[in-house]
Amino acid sequence: MSIGQKIRNAREDKDLSQYDMAKQIPMNQSNYSKIERDVQEPSIEQLRRICQILKLDPRYLLSLEEFEFLSAADLRLLADAKKFINEHQSNEKSSQQ
Q1: Reduced to 3 states, what is the DSSP secondary structure of residue 25?
Q2: CA dist., res. 39 & res. 81, Å (int)
């Protein structure tokens, strides 16, 4: 399954429209639609926001579980990305309260 298909399925499971997603990312709906149709790849920041909004693990979207071997540098990068995302989510929750 492609990244776009995974994102579309998760969005539909959350009962969100493409417009709702695009507004939260933020980006225009036309470009968001291109991501779901695999016409355009999301930027790192867009991917981060999509994962936050849909509560998705980036490893799932990027199909990292399919790789049999990840280098130590790859694992550090994933750990750093997870730490960054978790810190950002904590900061967002704190600012919303």
Answers
A1: coil
A2: 25
The token duo for 77 is 């990068």
Whether the model pTM is above 0.90: no
C-alpha distance from residue 31 to each of 20, 36, 86 (Å): 13, 9, 26
Q: Give Cα separations from 17 to 40, 79, 85 (angstroms).
A: 18, 31, 24
Q: For the segment 25-72, what is each residue's pLDDT rounded down to a tens digit?
A: 999 999 999 999 999 999 999 999 999 999 998 888 887 765 556 677
- Give the number of other Cβ atoms within 10 Å of residue 82's Cβ: 13
Beta carbons within 8 Å of 50's beta carbon, 6+ residues apart: 7, 21, 25, 35, 42, 56, 61
* Angle, in degrees to the nearest 10, between helices 3-13 and 29-36: 110
Q: Is 63 helix (H, G, I), strand (E, B) or coil?
A: coil
